[in-house]
Each structure stands twice: as structure tokens, then as C-alpha cells.
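Exercise 3.2. Students should predict the tertiary structure of the chain below and write it as C-alpha cells, then compare their answer with the key that follows.

Predict this chain's 3D structure.
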Amino acid sequence: MQKLILLLLILLTISCKETEFNTAWTKEQAPETFTAKFETTKGDFEIEITRRWSPQAADRLYQLIKHGYYDNAIFYRVVPGFVAQFGNTDSKTMNNWRSIKIPDEPVLHSNTRGTISFARFGKDSRDLEVFINLEDNKVLDTLNFEDVKGFTPIGKVKNGMETVDKLYSGYAEEPMSDPNLYQNRDLFYQTFPKLDLIRKAYLIKE
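Answer key:
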């Protein structure tokens, strides 16, 4: 009986151990189209990604979802009539992925309602942060920010846009100004306790 208990404890420890980041993940190529499901605190939604819209970014999103990056991520920026943005987890995991950026790509599809694009902070800076357009934001197709033109959609919400519409938006842009967004996740969430979370995100085999 004691041996059985010891074995169960070992298995539990192994299953709970954090998976170490592997740079080989960033070389994985996405299928030409793929779908993924996001289980959130407001319900579920599904996305469909089209690789030809933005191959490098589609590959990165595929990698992030496949390796569980967005599990427990926070919808930290939800602005009514604009975007719902997510992508921050713990700082160690973020820094691992952020060490390898995604090159900029041209805008081939408009930022219409339900489309998904990577946020960016300058030239070749796309990495983890993703936003869903809550309305038609066509101004983002050509907006020049930090000498880069436009935000490049990579796919769209396939099912469950009503879930995205229900994400808590009362804080709007306020969480973006809190340094704990990237430094202390627990303290950040204590400051903004109504923000919704992604419980789990995973690829759907079709």
C-alpha cells in the first residue's frame, strides 16, 4: 500500500511539473488552416486561422496554443467597440517566447469584427499579445505606428462571438497602465479582479 501511494505521488509530481520551454517549438509550422477552442470564464469560443493571411504569425499562434501558453491568460484589455486583448502569463514563460520575435508581414485582410491580429510595439515586435476586433476596425489596416503600417489579421472567431462580447470591459484601457501586468500577475489580478481568464486553449482536430 505504501509503495502504491509513493508511486501515485511520483506520478502526480511529474504531471504537475512545468514543461520547460523548447526553442524548437518556434520552428513548428501551422497547417494552412486550423481551429482552436478557448474555454473562458464567460464561456467558450472557437477561432479559425488562415495561414496565408500572415504565415509567420499563424505559425506563432499555432505554437503558443499547442504548447499551452494561453492557459490561464488574462483578458487584460477589453475596450467596448474596439478590441479584446490577451497574451500575458507569468514573466518567465513570456520572456522565453519573447526572445524570438515574428517579422512584420503585409495586411492582406481587413480588421473586421471578429478577426484576430497580433499586437505590436514597433518594427518586427509581434510575439505573444493578440487581440480580437469587437467591431469593424478598418483604421487598423493602414494605421502607421512606430514606422510599421497596419495590424495584420491572421484569422477570425468561428463560433462564440457572443462569448467574446460578454468579456468584462469595465476597466477598459486602465489595466494597460499598471506595471504589474508584466511584473506581478497575482497583484495585477488583485487590482483588477473582474477581468476574465482563459481557462484553457487548445487545437481542435478536424
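Discussion points: The two ends are 43 Å apart (CA to CA). Helices lie at 2-16, 55-66, 91-98, 161-165, 180-183, 185-191.
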